[in-house]
Amino acid sequence: MRLTQSMCTIAECAPGGEGCPPAAAAAAARPRLVKIAVVGGSGVGKTALVVRFLTRRFIGDYERNAGNLYSRHIQIDGEMLAIQVQDTPGVQIHEHSLHCNEQLNRCIRWADALVIVFSITDYKSYELLSHLYHHVRQLHPGNAVPVVIVANKADLLHIKEVEPQHGLQLANMLGCTFYEVSVSENYNDVFNAFHLLCKEVSKQQTTSTPERRRTSLIPRPKSPNMQDLKRRFKQALSAKVRTVTSV
Ligand SMILES: Nc1nc2c(ncn2[C@@H]2O[C@H](COP(=O)(O)OP(=O)(O)O)[C@@H](O)[C@H]2O)c(=O)[nH]1
Ligand SMILES: [Mg+2]
């Protein structure tokens, strides 16, 4: 499958793989897991966004309503993270209310963070935003799950149906960070959106689970290392010899 092939060429280094310095490989032994779901209307570029983030590539033609789960190890701010990204089928509004099937609801509950995508060329996808946002909040009650809003297809300004600043205003109202991107033309903005979510989730994980934080701060006992034992034994021996000769 074309997509799978291009996923193998991802620029980020795999844990312990070639190109990873030994220290980074060691730090990657048990990378923190960050689960991100990408939701939005149909045809807004969700799959393109996920593929762009993971492979840096824009292919242009994607399987419809795939709903695949992708995972990669990516180094962000010096920390190796295991990122899982769940692509989802497009949602629609039926009789003024959002229609989400149970599978999508499961994805939303599963996620540590969400990307809500709309296309500036599709007003209906913009209308979905606040419905989706409130739906996400309902499925994560009492939990400030980080959400970013992404306005895609910024390269198609000549056929826009939504002013990008309207997206920004709505995002501000909802308290979300807003990114205007063109998945087809720019990788950095796409990366920045995911990067922010990873940082937010990382922050939440370290502040919300003191038990986990405590255990991660306590160094794990190292397994006996023969070289080290030999060195310490020699040191102890020579110290003894010194003590004896100085008497
Ligand atoms: N011009 C342009 N086309 C895009 C962009 N992002 C996605 N597309 C196209 O929009 C169509 C739908 O994208 P897709 O990722 O399948 O949308 P999904 O249904 O939300 O997953 C595809 O033909 C993509 O090539 C973009 O930034 N600019
Ligand atoms: Mg898709």
Automatic annotation (TrEMBL):
It comes from the Eukaryota. The keyword Hydrolase applies. Residues 205-225 are annotated as: Disordered. It catalyses: GTP + H2O = GDP + phosphate + H(+). Pfam families: Ras. Keywords: GTP-binding, Hydrolase, Nucleotide-binding. GO terms for biological process: negative regulation of transforming growth factor beta receptor signaling pathway. Its EC number is 3.6.5.2. InterPro entries: P-loop_NTPase, Ras-related_GTPase, Small_GTP-bd, Small_GTPase. GO terms for molecular function: G protein activity; GTP binding; transforming growth factor beta receptor binding. PROSITE patterns: RAB, RAS. Belongs to the small GTPase superfamily. Ras family. This is small monomeric GTPase. The lineage of its organism: Eukaryota, Metazoa, Chordata, Craniata, Vertebrata. The gene is RASL11B.
